Amino acid sequence: MNTSTPVAVITGASRGIGAALVPVYRALGYGVVAVARTIADSTDPDVLTVGADIGAPGAGDRIVAAALHRFGRIDTVVNNAGIFVAKPFTEYTDADYDAVLGVNVRGFFELTRAAMPTLLHGGRGHVVTISTTLVEHANSVLPSVLASLSKGGVTAATRSLAIEYAGRGVRANAVALGVIDTPMHAPETHEALAALHPVGRLGEISDVVDAVRYLETAPFVTGEILHVDGGQSAGH
C-alpha cells in the first residue's frame, strides 16, 4: 500500500460492530488498523492487527506508532470499543467504574489525542465514536448510569472536537445506538430488549455499519450525533 491510500484505525475490531466495519472500510479503499485486546493476525496485507488495551496509559501512542510504521498515515479513527454494565446505581462497584470509564472514556481520549496530529497533517481527518441514545433518553427498565456518565462525556467531546477542528480539516461525529444484536446480549434477552424500541426490534450490526459509512462519506457533516436507535430518541 502506498501512502496516498487513506487509513482507518478501528477499535474493538475483533468482533461485533468493529469486526463488521473492517471490510466496510476496506471496500471504501482504506487500509485498516484493527485494534482489540486480543485479535488474530489478518491475511489481508492492508489490515494491520494490533493487540492493545485502549484504556491503558500509552496505548494510543503505541497504536498510532504501529499505524504510521505500517502505512505512513491515519485519516480516520473509529472509537468503537466499549463496555456496557447495566445495574442499579448503588450496586456499581469501583471495579465497574474503572472498567467502564477506562475503556469508554480513557480509551477515547488515549487514541483520539494520539492520532490528532496525524489527522491534522492529512487535512481531511475524521473521528467517529460509538455512543448510546441512553445519554439523552434514560430508560427506567435499563438502569445504566455508568453508560450515561461515560458515553455522555464522549458525546459532548465529539461536539467540542468538531468545533475546535472544523476550520482545520478534521471532522468529529458520533453514532448513538439503541440496543444492537451483538454477542454482548444473550439470546434469551432479545425479546425484552426489542421492546425498548418503538419499531419493536433490535438493531442489526448492518444498521450501525450503514450509519458509520454515511458519516465517513459525508464531508459537510461534523458535530453530528446520528441516532440509530429504532425511534428511542423520538419517544416511547
UniProtKB/TrEMBL annotation:
<dbReference type="GO" id="GO:0050574">
    <property type="term" value="F:2-(R)-hydroxypropyl-CoM dehydrogenase activity"/>
</dbReference>
<keyword id="KW-0560">Oxidoreductase</keyword>
<protein>
    <submittedName>
        <fullName>Dehydrogenase</fullName>
        <ecNumber>1.1.1.268</ecNumber>
    </submittedName>
</protein>
<dbReference type="InterPro" id="IPR036291">
    <property type="entry name" value="NAD(P)-bd_dom_sf"/>
</dbReference>
<dbReference type="InterPro" id="IPR002347">
    <property type="entry name" value="SDR_fam"/>
</dbReference>
<comment type="similarity">
    <text>Belongs to the short-chain dehydrogenases/reductases (SDR) family.</text>
</comment>
<dbReference type="Pfam" id="PF13561">
    <property type="entry name" value="adh_short_C2"/>
</dbReference>
